[in-house]
TrEMBL record:
<dbReference type="GO" id="GO:0006281">
    <property type="term" value="P:DNA repair"/>
</dbReference>
<dbReference type="GO" id="GO:0031298">
    <property type="term" value="C:replication fork protection complex"/>
</dbReference>
<protein>
    <submittedName>
        <fullName>TIM protein</fullName>
    </submittedName>
</protein>
<dbReference type="GO" id="GO:0003677">
    <property type="term" value="F:DNA binding"/>
</dbReference>
<dbReference type="Pfam" id="PF26019">
    <property type="entry name" value="HTH_TIMELESS"/>
</dbReference>
<dbReference type="GO" id="GO:0000076">
    <property type="term" value="P:DNA replication checkpoint signaling"/>
</dbReference>
<dbReference type="GO" id="GO:0043111">
    <property type="term" value="P:replication fork arrest"/>
</dbReference>
<dbReference type="InterPro" id="IPR044998">
    <property type="entry name" value="Timeless"/>
</dbReference>
<dbReference type="InterPro" id="IPR001005">
    <property type="entry name" value="SANT/Myb"/>
</dbReference>
């Protein structure tokens, strides 16, 4: 690639640098940036999250997010994901 020097002037992620070296489109599915994507919330999960929030928001002295995480039927969600989804909703 004769114009690779121009690309080197800008910040690259490790995945982008790998693609520059090995050729664009060389990353397999599930590698690099695609691996870190969060699975989307289904409408059922959103409804359950909404119900759990309304149930635990008035409890004094308890962390609302911790209570939601303990009762969320879908395991694997992080505290950050739950907070982000609640703010978005």
């Amino acid at each position: 690639n004769k114009k690779a020097f121009v690309e080197l002037l800008f910040w690259k992620s490790p995945a982008a640098a790998f693609e520059m070296a090995k050729g664009y489109g060389s990353l397999q599915e599930g590698e690099g940036a695609a691996r870190s994507r969060v699975p989307p919330w289904s409408p059922q999960e959103e409804q359950e999250l909404r119900e759990l929030y309304w149930k635990y928001k008035e409890v004094e002295g308890e962390d609302v997010i911790a209570a939601i995480l303990a009762h969320l039927p879908t395991p694997g969600r992080t505290r950050r994901q739950v907070v982000k989804q609640l703010v978005r909703m």
